[in-house]
């Protein structure tokens, strides 16, 4: 499991790179440190900080756009066809 790649993927899903670049940088650095830790206790401490940082990123993330209702999608198609 590549911790750094997973953290980067989560950051991209959250869309927070522009909102909180400092927290993003901290999360990526912590992910690198988790991967490099040899001692389990060190990995646990760094992992706890990474989890806390990711929780903060989730708090500042914009709300997810819900998938449109099929009827809304149909209405949008009709509107585009009619040039409205």
Characterize this entry briefly.
The protein is an all-alpha fold. It has helices spanning 3-14, 21-36, 40-60, 70-81. The chain has four helices and no strands.
Give an account of the 3D structure.
With 84 residues, the protein is an all-alpha fold. It has one domain. Helix content is 73%, strand content 0%. The chain is built from four helices and no strands. It has helices spanning 3-14, 21-36, 40-60, 70-81. The longest helix has 21 residues, at 40-60. The chain is elongated and about 65 Å long. The protein starts with a helix and ends with a helix. The mean pLDDT is 88.
**Arithmetic mean of pLDDT:** 88
Share of β-strand residues? under 5%
> Gyration radius, to the nearest Å?
19 Å
- The number of strands is 0
The main sheet comes to: none
Report the structural category.
mainly alpha
- Return the string of H and E elements: HHHH
User: What's the total helix number?
Assistant: 4
* Inertia-based shape: elongated
Kindly give the count of domains: 1
> Helical content, roughly?
over 70%
Enumerate the spans where pLDDT stays under 50 for 5 or more consecutive residues.
Answer: none
What is the first-to-last residue Cα distance? 49 Å
């Amino acid at each position: 499991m590549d911790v750094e790649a997973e953290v980067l993927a989560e950051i991209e899903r959250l869309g927070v790179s522009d909102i909180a670049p400092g927290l993003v940088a901290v999360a990526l650095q912590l992910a690198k440190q988790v991967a490099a830790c040899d001692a389990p206790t060190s990995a646990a401490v760094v992992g706890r900080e990474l989890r806390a940082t990711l929780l903060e990123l989730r708090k500042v993330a914009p709300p997810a756009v819900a998938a449109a209702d099929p009827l809304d999608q149909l209405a949008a198609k009709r509107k585009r066809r009619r040039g409205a």
